[in-house]
Amino acid sequence: MSTIRADPANIVADGVSTTKLTVTVKRSDGMPLEQESVVLTSSGKGDKFTPEARGVTDAEGVFTAAMSSTSATTKTVTATFGGGRSINTQVDFELCHGPLFLPATSEIVGNSPNSITTGDFNGDARLDLAVTNYLDKNVSILLGGANGTFSAATHYAVGSGPYSVVTGDFSADGKLDLAVVNYDDKNVSVMLGDGKGAFLAATNYPVGYGPYSATVGDFSGDGKLDLAVVNNGDMNVSILLGKGNGTFSAATNYNVGGNPTSVATGDFDGDNRPDLAVANYGDKTVAILLGTDNGTFSAPTSYAAGSGPYSVAIADFNGDAKLDLAVANSNDKNVSALLNKGNGTFSAAVNYAAGPTPYSVASGDFNMDGKVDLAVANRDGKSVSVLSGNGNGTFSAAASYAAGSGPYFVAAGDINGDGKVDLAVADYEDQNVSLLITSGCVP
Question: Among 137, 165, 239, 366, which is least packed, fewest CB within 10 Å?
Fold first, then answer.
């Protein structure tokens, strides 16, 4: 009789600890079947087989593999062989206590990576990455594989000094496209996706002097995606209205503040129109521009942040269904949280310590407690600070996780398909992206 055995059958779901799976395949007379193909599958998410989930039996009819997981639940592991015959066993993966993220792994991209966006570029329901490489004048595409792995990067030419990349379906064909902000060329490159993970040659649209960051939204309410680009040198934001076919109208500019470095969009005043939040590095402020009709915006209202605000992120920190702000202050080693009053205005900033030179902030529920947390990339700290949200708009003290050298940007997403939010970090000085996978552990 063929068997499958897990040893141990109870194991911690930390993504590192493994159970040994032993499959023994026998003929009806009890003799072992040699060179029988075996395929292992699991009913859960976040599971990894090593060295592989498939192979052939040895002279004793035995095939072995190790299995780990970042998801704490009971899994049914099935071994399929012999033209469809199958056997199964159960493995209990238990909640672990330890670091929230596994040690970082890395993927090679290009020279001076400084921005990341995520999306499913080839329609396989796995998260892919797009990374701007400042010195190479290109963007790297890394297609996601099983268990958080990625294919080797494919590079696409853009303009000079690419500084930010965002994604959206600009041509309304159900395929994700890219927009890349080119700092040196004063333009934005739009690259239409083919839905298979490849992109067409870039079409460039002029914006202002020193474009730094972009965000995507339907600013005119016509069902077509538009772009907002902050221009560091011109101290304004350019709005490019999308035509729905992958092309854009000429930019319209709105003043913001001193040396803007980051822009994000959300409905801050509850009128169902997207508004803008802009981090103004030179003014030590974050500016709010409320959206009006037809893709236009009101004059900015500014709120004090810290020194050198470099990045802004939006999420509901206190569970009141109103979008709040987090601002990474690069000169103060902290992040400011500004809570929304619900009418498009914000409370005074409350600051939380991060690491040296925080350059980027992202939000997500990293510890799966239903509360929004923050992740901050610390450029001079070779680290990411994670601040767990308390659900009332406050945050716990930061925990630090090692990244690469010069982490410029952090993006959040489910990299390995286990239903948990992971981190991808652009390491400017290492020519790679650090991947921090959520361990499933409770700190």
Answer: 137
410's tokens: 């952090």
Instruction: Tokens 């797009």: give the residue.
Output: 130
Q: How far is CA 313 from CA 82, 180, 225, 263, 359, in A?
A: 53, 19, 20, 8, 12
Cα–Cα distance measured from residue 168 to residue 54, given in angstroms and rounded to the nearest whole number:
37
- The residue written with tokens 């949200």 in the block is 389
The total number of residues written for the chain in this structure = 443
Residue pair 400/381 in contact (Cβ under 8 Å)? The answer is yes
Residue 218 contacts residue 239 (beta carbons within 8 Å): no
- 130-147 confidence digits (pLDDT tens): 999 999 999 999 999 988
H or E, element range at 129: strand 128-133
Query: Quick check: pTM over 0.90?
Result: no
Helices (runs of H) and strands (runs of E) counted in the chain:
0, 39
Q: Which of 9, 196, 185 is nearest to 89 (CA)?
A: 9
- The two beta strands, 96-97 and 441-442, are parallel
| Beta-sheet pairing, 10-12 with 85-94 | parallel
Instruction: Count CA atoms within 13 Å of residue 388 on its CB side.
Output: 15
Tokens for 421?
Answer: 């939010």
**pLDDT tens digits, residue range 144-168?**
998 889 999 999 999 999 999 999 9
- Asked if 304 and 352 count as a contact pair (C-beta separation under 8 A), the reply is no
Strands (E), 183-235: 187-191, 203-206, 211-217, 226-231
Question: Which of 330, 325, 287 is CA-nearest to residue 308?
Answer: 330
Residue 343 in tokens: 């009418």
Residue 29's CB is within 10 A of a number of other CB atoms, namely 5
| pLDDT above 80: residue 172 | yes
pLDDT by residue (tens digit) across 356-399? 999 999 999 999 889 999 999 999 999 999 999 999 999 999 99
Q: What is the CA radius of gyration of the chain?
A: 24
Asked if 87 contacts 105 with a C-beta cutoff of 8 angstroms, the reply is no
> How many other CB atoms are found less than 10 A from the CB of residue 341?
13
Instruction: Count Cβ atoms below 10 Å from residue 245 Cβ, excluding itself.
Output: 12
CA-based nearest residue to 142, from 197, 194, 192, 181: 197
Amino acid type, 107: E
Q: Which residue has the tokens 């039996």?
A: 57
The C-alpha atoms of residue 40 and residue 88 are separated, in whole angstroms, by: 9
Residue 7 has pLDDT above 90, yes or no: yes
CB 177 within 8 A of CB 190: yes
Q: For residues 52 and 48, what is the distance between their CA atoms, to the nearest angstrom?
A: 9
